[in-house]
């Protein structure tokens, strides 16, 4: 959350001359309400089911850069959808995470004690991010442009 998926995803798409899409945005548009509202009204399990359908549809329809929600990899079937795809895992440390997300109620899983919750989330998730990743790109101390260049270098991709 807040690692720069949207910022870097859009820069990467521009540099590659392809489109950009974001499953969190797809869900908000399709449901007509904020993600935090879906979490509160339906719970996380239902959100993950909606998210899985959204990832499946986006992968089928979209050619280009796709940003997933930060927790999409928690679902085994969603991870399965990523097999054979080029996946960039953007990483950061906890201090960078707190700087970027702050105390923001729009991120339901970090709303109460962001530093502690972030550490716990990462302990549970890090191996899943690494499992699906083709490359890992550290974002700490790098500008979005530098992160984008590092992703292009790691993937050995040429610009359009
Ligand atoms: N490399 C970077 N260095 C410093 N700040 C950054 C960097 N990348 C993104 N940011 C800032 O961090 C915040 C979160 O970025 P962004 O919205 O792109 O992240 P995200 O991963 O898409 O977040 P979300 O989990 O909300 O989808 C924004 O304020 C953005 O400007
Ligand atoms: O990491 C997560 O679990 C989440 C990340 C966001 O992208 C949203 O999909 C939602 O806030 C949940
Ligand atoms: Mg985003």
From TrEMBL:
Positions annotated to bind substrate: 24, 48, 70, 125
UniProt: Mg(2+) binding residues: 6
UniProt keyword Transit peptide present: no
Matches recorded under Pfam families: SKI
Cofactor(s), by name: Mg(2+)
SUPFAM superfamilies: P-loop containing nucleoside triphosphate hydrolases
Catalysis: reaction(s): shikimate + ATP = 3-phosphoshikimate + ADP + H(+)
GO molecular function: shikimate kinase activity
InterPro entries with a match to the protein in the record: P-loop_NTPase, Shikimate/glucono_kinase, Shikimate_kinase/TSH1, Shikimate_kinase_CS
Known pathway: Metabolic intermediate biosynthesis; chorismate biosynthesis; chorismate from D-erythrose 4-phosphate and phosphoenolpyruvate: step 5/7
Primary location: cytoplasm
Places the protein is found: Cytoplasm
Binding site for ATP: 2-7, 107, 142
PROSITE patterns named among the record's database cross-references: SHIKIMATE_KINASE (PS01128)
UniProtKB keywords: Amino-acid biosynthesis, Aromatic amino acid biosynthesis, ATP-binding, Cytoplasm, Kinase, Magnesium, Metal-binding, Nucleotide-binding, Transferase
Cofactor, how bound (note): Binds 1 Mg(2+) ion per subunit.
KW Ribosomal protein (keyword) present: no
EC number: 2.7.1.71
Family: Belongs to the shikimate kinase family.
The protein's role, per its UniProt record: Catalyzes the specific phosphorylation of the 3-hydroxyl group of shikimic acid using ATP as a cosubstrate.
Protein name in UniProt: Shikimate kinase
Organism: Streptomyces hyaluromycini
